[in-house]
Backbone:
């Protein structure tokens, strides 16, 4: 299977996603999402796993931007995990919640707990880190400081922290989609079960902006009865008002329908790239 890269350090949510898809393999943690994607491109690891979207916070922009603008690595699989966020402190600081001076975590985790932080910890400074587990490790290293991390149970155990308050995410339906990347677009992913299939397209509208262009794009899918599960616009970074559209279709690339839709979009003057065609697994 080769080595599997992920957004580390040990005990991030991404680490959990990796373990659920690739049990008992060699894992390599990377400090950032771009470093993990580049490791796949350079062949330092065979597969890379990075977060893509959260139910409460939406897309992980860093992942999307890097995959679109910097290093196009095919998506070969997706895993969806339930996300439970906990507030954790060094055991020496148990019971000091009201006197906490700062809270550390990944921006997405902080955003998932906004209401909790506003209600109970508005006196504390909030610091963003490259991952939740990085924040937990930092709290472990500074027992003399009155600080906490927001991270998962695995991180509390890995870094010897005490959970001061469990399940602090603002809405119970909290899930994150993680994508599996590989240099070969048809690489095998050892899912224990498959819950569905998807194809992700990147569509650029014709340069001469005309009324109804997006409507025509959507029609190409609608009359073929291709169900879409997501459409999102992302800046092309060429000027205000210039966007790509990322479109998820609820099926794998076939011989007729999706190629037909792509040809129709190209005839309309769109530029279309396939970011991946893959199966996904939903973990309980
Ligand atoms: O920091 C982590 O533990 C991650 O795996 C990153 C990440 C994210 O980017 O969304 C993954 C899942 C949670 O939604 C919060 C953080």
Residues:
């Amino acid at each position: 299977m080769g080595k599997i890269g992920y957004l580390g350090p040990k005990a991030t949510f991404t680490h959990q996603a990796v373990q659920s898809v690739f049990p008992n393999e060699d894992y390599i943690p990377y400090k950032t999402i771009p470093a993990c994607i580049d490791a796949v491109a350079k062949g330092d690891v065979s597969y890379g796993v990075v977060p893509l979207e959260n139910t409460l916070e939406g897309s992980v922009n860093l992942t999307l931007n890097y995959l679109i603008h910097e290093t196009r690595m095919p998506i070969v699989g997706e895993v969806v995990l339930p996300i439970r966020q906990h507030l954790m402190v060094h055991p020496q600081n148990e019971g000091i919640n009201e006197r906490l001076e700062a809270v550390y975590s990944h921006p997405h985790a902080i955003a998932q707990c906004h209401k909790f932080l506003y209600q109970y910890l508005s006196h504390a400074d909030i610091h963003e880190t490259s991952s939740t587990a990085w924040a937990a490790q930092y709290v472990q290293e500074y027992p003399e400081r009155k600080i906490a991390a927001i991270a998962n149970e695995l991180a509390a155990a890995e870094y010897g922290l005490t959970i001061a308050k469990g399940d602090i995410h603002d809405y119970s339906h909290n899930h994150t989609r993680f994508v599996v990347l590989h240099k070969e677009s048809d690489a095998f992913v050892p899912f224990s079960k498959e819950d569905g299939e998807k194809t992700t397209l990147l569509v650029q509208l014709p340069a001469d902006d005309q009324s109804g262009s997006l409507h025509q794009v959507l029609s190409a899918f609608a009359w073929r009865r291709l169900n879409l599960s997501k459409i999102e616009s992302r800046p092309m970074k060429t000027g205000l008002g210039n966007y790509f559209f990322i479109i998820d279709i609820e099926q794998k690339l076939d011989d007729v329908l999706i190629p037909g839709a792509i040809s129709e979009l190209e005839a309309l003057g769109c530029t279309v790239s396939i970011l991946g065609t893959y199966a996904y697994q939903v973990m309980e």
